[in-house]
Amino acid sequence: MPRSKEIQKQMRKKVIEINQSGKGYKAISKALGLQRTTLRAIIHKWQKHGTLENLPRSGWPTKITPRAQRRLIQEVSKYPTTTSKQLQALLASVKVSVHDSIIRKRLGKNGLHGRVPRRKPLLSKKNIKACLSFARKHLDDPQDFWENTLWTDETKI
After folding, report:
1. Report field, pTM of the whole predicted structure over 0.90
2. Cβ neighbour number for residue 49 with a 10 Å cutoff
3. Rounded to a whole number, what is the largest CA-CA distance in the chain?
């Protein structure tokens, strides 16, 4: 089950004030429209830590510094086809050792997701030359010539 939104600080203060006035969980729940388990968690935190601020959460500290992260984003913005292995080598040159999946996660959090580009028809040198010669050949043709032309283009654009 996904976590719900965080309760605002003002609401947490109200919960503590009402609780200190002597009301129980049920009364506070009806008055503020919050779940009893949420109220219990807020009150328990107040009793244990004496604060309503968000406490630091557990977890391993990030290896990628904000500076290295900016460098990654800049590099990917400049060269969109850069692979995560190449970015890993770039960070290794700055003495930051991380796995390529961490790099992909960090870029994803910044809105830079790896995608496969759409397939587009390739125009070879021969096709470009043929189009250009056709355009030059019919440059001075009158308007009625173009109105009577039947266009049957076979390219898949």
Report:
1. no
2. 10
3. 94
